[in-house]
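Follow-up to my post from last week.
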Amino acid sequence: MRAFRHITGPFLALGVYLALASATPLWRAALGALFPDETRILYPDVTPLGLVGQHLELVALSSAISIVAGLALGIFVTRPAGADFRDTVTDLSNIGQTFPPVAVFTLAVPLLGFGVQPTVVALALYGVLPILRNTITGLAGVPATVLESATGMGMRPAERLTRVELPLAAPVIVAGIRISVIVNVATATIGAIAGAGGFGAPIINGLVNLAPAVTLEGALLAAGLALVLDALLGGIERTFARGRQSEDASLTRSR
Amino acid sequence: MSGRPHVIGLTAAVLGTVSVMLLPFATFRASRIQTGSVLSTFEAVGPWGLAALLGVWLAVASVSTGRTPPASAAVLRGALATVALLGTVALSAYAVERAAEPALPFARVSLGIGAWSTIGIAYAVILSSRRETDVGRWARLALSAVPPLGVAVMLWTGMLDGLAIMLEYANQADRFWVEVIAQLTFAGIAVGVALVLGVTLGVLAFRRPRLRGPVFAVANVFQTIPGLAMVGLLFAPLSWLGSNVPVFERMGVGGLGWAPVIVALTLYALLAIVRNTYAGLASVPPEAVDAGIGMGMTEWQVLRRVRFPLAMPVIFGGARTAAVQTLGNATLGAFVAAGTLGLFVFGGLSQQAPDLILLGSVTLVVLALGLDGVLAAAQVLISPRHRRGREGATP
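User reply:
Got it. Predicted complex:
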């Protein structure tokens, strides 16, 4: 159980967040008490939990694509077969990360269209970059001596990758995934303008119609989800980092 | 003598050819907001245009086979990619001319995904050429400068004025520069405030280990909360302050307007500056600190005269990250009636006017890349190696 101690807290927080989000009457009561003069309290079209669902769908789909693509490309360019691409891929992803995420999203819409699918593609596109960069950094950071001893133990390249390189690079890779997911949660709020729903819908609706309660509903839900996911991925990052430290320690001890 | 084939060059040639042959080069729309029909490269720029683009990629492939000596191959490949990039932009102007119909005076031609990907692939080749060790300093400088200068010249001469994005610019010309300045002003003020606060907090975290955890936790929370959500969270409290506290009322503070933008951007920018200030101060070698103490400096003098100068490049790096992020995030202003390029970007999205979106987004990207480039150059200038080099040069 000790292995999971960094993520039990964040998982509890996620549970609390979802429980709170599903308590629509609670939202109505709390926001009604905060804004006694307002007639518009909750976003009319979707319940709080429904908004969480829409937003999570956008983030989960796009992050899944980002993770698979970022890992695959990162692994490819750090193998001998893809080594020629490494510098150029690194350069391109550095330049890409200079692009404002909002601009990547909005540039994709005229090319791909409006709605959920283009939003997912646009989010995934930007989300690849931090994962790709950290995968390259993480895999490149595995010491050559470790690689040599793995080969010396008779590991084939694929085995070496899955049993030595990826576990050692995991904390750095997860750090990239964390950045990617958090940027995705934020950029997905803009997706509302392209008709993709999510937390942006009540926030913008409230700002445009001067209904502070509706804006606060969306803003609290968005901030909560971002913080919970950040804590969760931070916990996973620490779990991997701990495993790595103890492995390092055992290596030094055996030496 | 034959060398190894250049994989980037060959891949780019294949992908470039695919983009030219299979992806739409341009989109034709009868008016600003009508859905368009896509034009293939052949339809958009005719047989000669198509042949020219294919010819450039064929040439890229042929200098990448490994038979050309690596040094000249790298320069040639970079030059050819520059031709492909600038050629595509120039051909887009030609596509506008070809598509013009007197019956449809409001028709618009914009670049399609094929043209954009050609530009992207060509730029990747330029980047790889620039990295190659055999490329001389001047060739490298030319490869960096010619593509943006070329596009700038085409814009300056009015050659591209017929393109949809430029027609949109002509429509918005009065507002355009106002919003660009608003974007830069918001980002500049927020980064300025964040620098003062962030460096202070970074020093605090460094000097008081017990505050380190809380300071980083709070800064991380500010950066994790989505910008739009932060603006939303500030809406009610700032409205209240603006209508109940006379000082703020006079300053124009409210749930809408400049206040939420500046506050949200400042909070968002804190983390990068705090983190780098702390990391910079902590990374100063103990020998330098010891030398300072040995000279009889007080703790404060060590911080100010030893640690800070040595940490400067790292702190500057944090400010650079913060500035580039903040510049992009300033688009949020559009949601709270504070203007910025967000007006074009998000206005275009809600009106479903692709040219308006493009005008805002492309400008945003150019501003971010330009700012990052300027700050990167400044970072090199203040880095110790450069200074040492210059001091060594003076007699």
